[in-house]
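User: Here's a chain of 96 residues. Predict its fold as tokens.
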Amino acid sequence: MNLGVFDMIGLAASLAFAIPLGNYAVIQLLAGETALGAGLLVVAVAMVVLPQYFLDPGRILAGLAKGLLPRQLRGGDPGDDADAEVEVDEAEPTEK
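Assistant: Prediction complete.
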């Protein structure tokens, strides 16, 4: 994973909130509050994992730009269009 300066700042901000929450979750797990501890642990992990792997701004912007551009300006192979129209052979219905 190649992180830039802003990515490192975002990761540090996420960890600043996720570490105390994870610590509290572990304390609750050890105290016997299984549901609360497990739920808070899932939230703490999601606070770090979601922005790093699923909410990648570059990928989101590339997908948005690709969706907004006309097909001719998207690039790639002209024959490899996912939005290309498919011809349907419509035969005349036969009468019984």
